[in-house]
């Protein structure tokens, strides 16, 4: 069953230097009970895509297309309807846990907030629920630590607190924007383990944004690869790792330390001035005449797999 | 530096703010307990006793109507503290409300409010207060109205500036992603985070408000006789400055001391809240 379906999503920022097409004609489905990885290099539009779903972008952004979620088009819902969805149906876990927590409120109070906002609980009940949420996120002695402020928490603990805030109202979909960024490797694997556990327990779906293929490989069922504001490949994670389709994905895998750390030549294009034809052709060693002039569609490759490359046309 | 970082022992460690706290503590106690510690009724006229120099009976002497000067300054403390507290509460809350509204919503609202504040700030505040009292008539209530009408401007500016920087923080986006309404974000996220500079401003502003109350009283536009009020007493004592200097010196000194004490506390607080001046312990 499809939980969230994005069709032809465009998120443009109008700036003085031109229109930044951060997300360009993206179509993507997230099914129930699955974790979809969204990978791509910095600045390819991953975060903007997530923010577009919750409509958290600033007002000068042009967002077009259709995002269907439980019978609603999120792009056409009014502000009040959106507020009911944010945090309750779709929760976001941000990438920087320190600056994403309010420095003047205790952790317990902040985790209580979603319960009070969306469940109409009183503070004392919400506090109890918050403490059990913190316990579920494996924060030791949650009753005491709940009374502490964010600056008294370590990075890993803060991310655990963020995760318990995000999962407080049992959302159907969790948008996790690089949840392991800035954490050391041991803490990273603990956080990944925790997220896997909590998400599976609650039968929630997750959109995991990351540029770390190892994290994606551990957590995800399927993977979507973004390049320069476009989805270039969607695939089961196993197929992707064993046999990537798009030349960019092949390059990504070859650039892993495990596979010889071979870099992809060139730089990703500016989102203001994207190349004609296939956006990857200037860096692609398989580039043909057609790639320079025509923009490729997503082509079916089999087993639910789609690739935006003329090699598969 | 944040609100919770203001700790009392830091304030006490700083000599100036310690002194300020002690003085304000004594004056505040005097104001609250005025009815119990004043030896005489401040308004009881005894013409036989008029213009007596300080003695064991009347520590600060008596005024031209034979009223005990000590009892009058004690009750004057009450008048001044009560008025300045009311004024600062009104101006700070209104100013912060306007500032957060302007800063958070921005755009047209911001433009209108800030230009209004620019215009009002173009006049010296005492002149504006004089104009307002001039049209409303003298009296305690009108003093409160006049000073409040011009006093909120700085609070609004400071609150707006803090709001502008706070609203770009990631936790505001986080709050929005959690489904918080704009109103909730303003009251639970913006307000507590922009309080520290406001608290400094309140303490520094207290001194200024006391001074303005006294000035208006001195000019005969504030508290009216026989209400004991420092500025009014200073003005009444002026006529007898040569023969009975205690009538002016005592209220004058009290005005100076209390303004100084509030400024000491304000400076101390500002030092604590300024991260560049933190001493590494």
Describe the protein's architecture and organization.
The complex is a heterodimer of chains A (313) and B (281). Chain A has 313 residues and is α/β, with parallel strands linked by helices. Helices cover 33% and strands 25% of the residues of chain A. Chain A is built from 11 helices and 12 strands. In chain A, the strands form 2 sheets. Chain A has an 8-stranded mixed β-sheet with strand order 6-7-8-3-9-10-12-11, sandwiched between helices. Chain A has a 4-stranded antiparallel β-sheet with strand order 2-1-4-5, with helices on one face. Chain A is globular. Chain B has a single domain (3-30, 60-274), classed as MetI-like (MetI-like fold), CATH 1.10.3720. Helix content of chain B is 72%, strand content 0%. In chain B, α9 runs antiparallel to α11 (246-273). Chain A binds chain B through residues 54, 56, 83-88, 91-92, 94, 96, 99-105, 113-114, 117-118, 149, 165, and chain B through 2-4, 169-171, 173-181, 184, 188-189, 192-193.
Beta-strand residue percentage of chain B: under 5%
- Assigned CATH architecture of chain B: Orthogonal Bundle
CA gyration radius of chain B, whole angstroms: 22 Å
Structural class per helix/strand content of chain B? mainly alpha
Core attributes:
heterodimer; A: alpha/beta; eight-stranded mixed β-sheet; four-stranded antiparallel β-sheet; 12 strands; B: 281 residues; mainly alpha; MetI-like fold; elongated
Q: Which secondary structure elements does this structure contain, and how are they paired or packed?
A:
The complex is a heterodimer of chains A (313) and B (281).
Chain A lengths: L1 E14 L2 E14 L3 E5 L6 H8 L7 E9 L2 E2 L5 H7 L4 E4 L13 H13 L3 H14 L5 H4 L9 H13 L5 E5 L7 H17 L3 E6 L2 H7 L2 E6 L2 E7 H6 L4 H8 L34 H5 L5 E4 L2 E3 L6
Helix pairs in contact in A: 3-4, 3-6, 4-6, 6-7
Chain B lengths: L7 H6 L1 H18 L1 H4 L31 H37 L1 H15 L3 H12 L3 H27 L3 H8 L4 H37 L11 H9 L7 H28 L8
Helix pairs in contact in B: 2-4, 2-11, 4-5, 4-7, 4-9, 4-11, 5-7, 6-7, 7-9, 8-9, 9-10, 9-11, 10-11
């Amino acid at each position: 069953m499809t939980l969230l379906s994005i069709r032809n999503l465009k998120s443009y920022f109008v700036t003085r230097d031109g229109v930044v097409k951060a997300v360009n004609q993206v179509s993507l489905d997230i099914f129930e009970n699955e974790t979809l990885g969204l990978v791509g290099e910095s600045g390819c539009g991953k975060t903007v895509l997530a923010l577009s779903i919750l409509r958290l972008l600033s007002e000068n952004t042009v967002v077009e297309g259709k995002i269907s979620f439980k019978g609603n088009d999120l792009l056409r819902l009014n502000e009040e309807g959106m507020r009911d969805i944010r945090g309750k149906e779709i929760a976001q876990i941000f990438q920087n846990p320190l600056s994403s927590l309010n420095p003047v409120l205790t952790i317990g109070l902040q985790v209580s907030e979603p319960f009070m906002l969306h469940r109409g609980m009183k503070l004392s009940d919400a506090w109890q629920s918050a403490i059990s949420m913190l316990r579920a996120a494996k924060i030791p002695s949650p009753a005491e630590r709940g009374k502490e402020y964010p600056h008294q928490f370590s990075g890993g603990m803060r991310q655990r607190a963020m995760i318990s805030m995000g999962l407080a109202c049992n959302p159907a979909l969790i948008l996790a924007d690089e949840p392991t960024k800035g954490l050391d490797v041991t803490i990273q694997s603990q956080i990944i383990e925790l997220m896997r556990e909590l998400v599976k327990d609650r039968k929630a779906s997750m959109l995991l944004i990351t540029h770390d293929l190892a994290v994606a490989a551990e957590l995800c069922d399927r993977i979507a690869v973004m390049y320069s504001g476009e989805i270039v490949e969607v695939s089961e994670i196993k197929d992707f790792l064993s046999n990537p389709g798009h030349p960019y994905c092949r390059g990504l895998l070859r650039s892993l330390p495990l596979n010889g750390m071979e870099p992809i030549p060139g730089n990703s294009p500016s989102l203001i001035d994207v190349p004609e034809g296939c956006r990857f052709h200037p860096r692609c060693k398989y580039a043909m005449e057609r790639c320079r002039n025509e923009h490729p569609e997503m082509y079916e490759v089999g087993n639910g797999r789609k690739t935006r490359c003329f090699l598969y046309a | 530096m944040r609100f919770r970082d203001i700790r009392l022992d830091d304030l006490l460690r700083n000599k100036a703010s310690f002194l300020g706290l002690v003085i304000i503590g004594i004056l505040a106690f005097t104001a609250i307990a005025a009815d119990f510690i004043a030896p005489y009724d401040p308004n009881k006229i005894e013409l036989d006793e008029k213009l007596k120099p300080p003695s064991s009976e009347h520590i600060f002497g008596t005024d031209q109507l034979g009223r005990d000067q000590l009892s009058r300054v004690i009750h004057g403390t009450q008048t001044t503290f009560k008025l300045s507290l009311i004024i600062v509460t009104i101006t700070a809350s209104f100013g912060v409300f306007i500032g957060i509204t302007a800063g958070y919503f921005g755009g047209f609202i911001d433009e209108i409010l800030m230009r209004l504040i620019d215009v009002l700030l173009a006049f010296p505040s005492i002149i504006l207060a004089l104009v307002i009292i001039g049209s409303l008539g003298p009296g305690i209530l009108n003093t409160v109205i006049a000073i409040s009408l011009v006093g909120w401007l700085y609070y609004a500016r400071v609150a707006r500036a803090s709001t502008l920087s706070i609203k770009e923080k990631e936790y505001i986006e986080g709050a929005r992603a959690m489904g918080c309404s704009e109103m909730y974000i303003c009251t639970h996220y913006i307000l507590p985070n922009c309080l520290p500079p406001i608290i400094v401003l309140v303490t520094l502003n207290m001194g200024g408000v006391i001074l303005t109350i006294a000035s208006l009283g001195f000019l005969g536009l504030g508290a009216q006789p026989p209400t004991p009020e420092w500025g009014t007493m200073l003005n009444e004592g002026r006529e007898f400055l040569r023969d009975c200097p205690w009538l002016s010196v005592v209220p004058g000194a009290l005005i100076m001391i209390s303004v100084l004490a509030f400024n000491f506390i304000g400076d101390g607080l500002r030092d604590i809240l300024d991260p560049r001046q933190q001493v590494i312990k």
